[in-house]
Amino acid sequence: MKVLFFSPHSAFWVHAFPEALVADALSHAGHEIIYASCGRLLDQFCVPMSANGIKPGDSKDKRDAVCRQCERNDHLLRQEFGFNGPTLHSLLTSEDFEEAEKIISTVSPDTLYSLERDGVPLGRLPLYQLIIRKKRITLDLNSDDWRDYLIELRSTIYAWLAARKLLDIHKPDRVIFYNGLYSVNRAVCLLAESRKIPAMFLHAGANLSNRLQTLMLGRDNTFSYYPKLVAQWPRFADTPCTPGLLSKVTDHYLQLIEGRSVFVYSKGKSSQTFDLRRHFGISLRQKVMVATLSSYDEEIAAEVAGARTYERPPLFKTQVEWISALMEFLKNRPDVFLIVRVHPREFPNRRDGRKSEHAKLLEEVLLQLPRNAAVNWPADQI
């Protein structure tokens, strides 16, 4: 088969190198590899820039530093693995850049949701990064938000334009990219799928003890991938785990419990005993119920980008509605004590210093609680 690797984020070595290993393995298996890297097409702003703490609108010098790293990594991978393929920038003409600016000039906060080309919702896709970076749950974009959005939109449109040419010229049988949720990758994914070309994502493994030593390979993105995995459970439910697999599961849970990974937001397990009932003032006659909240902006971002869909509508539209309903339930259940555990990522943490929009709303909603309820805030360090 002919496999197109859409690889605009070479600055992420921990992503780019494993991706290159997969491409190399496929090449050695006899498949033709088309390797398409950035070539500074996304030099206004990209995901690696964000990961390096650079914001949209930051100085060109800061952005150039990431671009140079991206080019060095790209050159090294192409040289050592012998990859062939164009840069995305080399594919676009002056007419393409003019088309991009024409599209951008027609977009407003009221029309971005309807911006679509080739079946790709170009207007919605950039909101994925914007929502997560700013930890938003509402989409009332202020002037700064709108400036950042247009920068993200421009990159997404560039990726879509380049992908059209890649698919037209090379006619691949498969398209592969690292992380199917980044807007530029998702634009390519949806364009390929609209042409009946299976689009596959790569991602570091889910086991926190060895996540960078393993890879997931699946269709579309992680939000669509996990439900398909769960659906396969009946095939394997009666197959015993080997000792080696059980050991890996244990290693993953030790990482969760110890709280050392940057992907574990909770505090690690204390070596001291902790009396839950004494701490929260729960009587021995009461059952303890815990409502664990999610990192809500990540959920909203996936829904807006069309990556998160539901087979049936959720029982409550928002987490706040759910918590409010639980508080009503508690009024007639003095035998139950509710602890609302707020997700630690809602507040500044070791990965980012931003407080989420949802956290501010929760602080207002959870101000007045019934006697048989309490909140476990991240600052409690439990």
Secondary structure: elements and pairs:
Elements: E1 2-7, H1 13-28, E2 32-37, H2 47-51, H3 60-81, H4 88-91, H5 94-105, H6 127-134, H7 143-170, E3 174-178, H8 183-194, E4 199-204, E5 215-219, H9 222-231, H10 233-236, H11 243-258, H12 276-280, E6 287-292, H13 296-304, H14 319-330, E7 336-341, H15 357-365, E8 373-376
Parallel strand pairs: 1-2, 1-3, 3-4, 6-7, 7-8
Antiparallel strand pairs: 4-5
Helix pairs in contact: 1-3, 5-7, 6-13, 7-8
Helices and strands, in N-to-C order?
Answer: EHEHHHHHHEHEEHHHHEHHEHE
Helix share bin:
40-55%
Question: Main sheet, how many strands, which sense, barrel?
Answer: 5 strands, mixed
- The SS-based structural class is alpha/beta
Characteristic terms for this protein:
45% helix; 382 residues; alpha/beta; three-stranded parallel sheet
Short précis:
This protein is α/β, with parallel strands linked by helices and 382 residues long. It has 15 helices and 8 strands.
Characterization of the model:
This protein is of the alpha/beta class. The protein is built from 15 helices and eight strands. It has helices at residues 13-28, 47-51, 60-81, 88-91, 94-105, 127-134, 143-170, 183-194, 222-231, 233-236, 243-258, 276-280, 296-304, 319-330, 357-365; strands spanning 2-7, 32-37, 174-178, 199-204, 215-219, 287-292, 336-341, 373-376. α1 (13-28) runs parallel beside α3. The longest helix is centred in the middle third of the chain and has 28 residues, at 143-170. The chain is globular and about 70 Å long.
